[in-house]
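Collaboration report, partner site 2.

Our partner group contributed sequences for two proteins of shared interest, and the home lab folded both. The records are reproduced in the order in which they were received, starting with the first partner submission.
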Amino acid sequence: MDMIEELLRSTIVLFVIVDPVGNVPILVELTRGLPRDSRKRVFNLATLVGSSLLLLFAFAGHQILLLFGVSLYSFKVAGGILFLFLALQILIYGGEKLLVKAGDVGVFPIGFPLLVGPGAITTTMITINSSGQLVAILSVLIVMFFSWLILMGVDRLYNFLGKVGADVVARVMAVILAGIAIEYILSGVRDALTA
């Protein structure tokens, strides 16, 4: 029962950080004018890139940190600061400010850092530390599967929410993200002080 609770909690936190619903306006703008088949290929590639990055950190995250001599609490603080900055950017300017049109949008910016950025990687690392590798891997697979479903239905979802609705969802998710970011910073500082 504890594992199910941990899985549910870590999946919800990771889903809020990946935020595929809040990214709908950005996704629509980045793929505007692409034929349906091309858009599906872009979203498939984005999901594959994002999933691969998170699974890499789920399997070898601690080794990667050791290689660069970075502690988990430093990674928590850095990740917290980065997504606090991201949350504030979305709250103040809106998600469209993050648009960068260059190269294959499936890899950059949709796969990384839009879906999977420092925040999602930090969350996966923290989940490994607090709940174990199995919970981290399962939450990554669940979140990326639901993100892929949302990407495949992005046009319908955007039409349902409308521009205003999608902006409201993005900003509400940004407030939640800011709260999670502060928790990460405080947790990292506490860990550093006790280490």
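Second partner submission, folded after the first:
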Amino acid sequence: MKQMLNNKLKRSVLYTVIGLSAAYAGLSYVGGDVASAQDVQNANVGTSIVGLPDFTPIVNQTENAVVNIRTMENISNRSHGYDPYGGDPSELFRFFFGPDFMPPRATPQPRHRGNGQPERSVPRGVGSGFIISDDGYIITNNHVISGASEILVTLNNGKEHTAKVIGSDQRTDIALLKIDSDEKLPTLKIGDSDSLKKGQWVLAIGSPFGLDSTVTSGIVSAINRDTGEYLPFIQTDVAVNPGNSGGPLINLNGEVVGVNSQIISQSGGFMGISLSIPIDDAMQVVEQLKENGKVTRGRIGVQIGEVAGEVAKALGLENDSGALVSNVEQGGPADKAGIQAGDVIIGFDGSEIKKWSDLPRIVGQTKPDTESMIEVWRRGKKQNLKITVGAVPSSPGEELAASKTEADKSAKADRLGLVVGNLSQETMTKLRIKGGVKITEVDGPGQAAGLRVDDIILAVNDQDIKDVKQFEETVGKLSKDKAAALLIRRANLTQWVPVTPSK
């Protein structure tokens, strides 16, 4: 009996080993015999076994066109400028510029401006990009290169180039760079993001945490994901981390279908939800950046919201699609076209408005001064109206500039290179200060000393600053040959910063 048990045990162990070996060989162990996957499929009704794709050919075809992007920023030396982190700016940069910032690869070298103020160049962040033309045009994210004094692009072969910014667009988070090379550069083929479907395999190639040419894979989790941003995103479960920003999302044909842009995370790292800008929308932006260096968008001058189900029923609509107009800008394109508050916009230039967020995207893609047809639902009927699309500033900064008063526009930088504005009472109460002025523009000596827009000046030398008028009078009396000490409040930090006035 003991011998029989030993023999059974040996056979059991042998079958287990054979089963494991067969599994590693792409086979399955069934009933004591080694069977193929097809045999298992035939033996299990309703069971489908599908082989995983081999990504090797796609990676070989595409990775040479994906680049690593490092950005630098000039700041003044610790002994001459505002450096509250004692010479190590990494935590300050991570706070202001996000987790894409990487530690320095090499010791930064001091540089000097013409006015004698020393400064140094420090790493600001790391990201990814991809080449779309063999003469050196590169797509990346706006947030990867925004605020950089220098942009360094490293190719997959290790060669490094300094890139120049052709143009960038904050709303869509797209930037277009250009590098000069003596050789013909590898490029990625542009795909069709509109043809994407849930469940399709996709790859991401980029430089997560500075680890260049890293490949990750996953599937399309959702399309047209509305996050409240200007564009609907492609949602995937491809592993994307800080440093992947600006890299390509690639389909199994080796075509770019998206630009990796964001992750949804509670920890700051990958948690299974990555968002990419559809390549169709990205290329529309790139074409304008290449031609004009900026993006011009259309606007019609309405405030809109979603159509609730109960409201749709009460208005006689078949469903709750469309954009409900809550306000019409007086004298704007919509006002001139006859659109009224309470109207529901259900179509624009032949495109159906399925949800309210579709309208700004479709209108924004329309060239200003274009005469278009807009379809509205009013008093139980459809009405078609002609509307001439207006133009919207291409960035919030331009919108701010456009809204300045003539007095603001005429403001000139002072001897410190600063333009300042008064603080609101609400701001002073919140910060627990009795006065001060906020920097709205900075150049020259102030910029070289490390001052920034939105810094608050509390005092100059031994003089407390109450408002703009007093600040201008104080600056006008400063000595030409002696540095002035400015007490600067930035976030929760306060520091004295020496600035030498220009002559």
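Feedback sent to the partner group on the second submission included the following. The chain has 14 helices and 30 strands. The chain has a mean pLDDT of 80.
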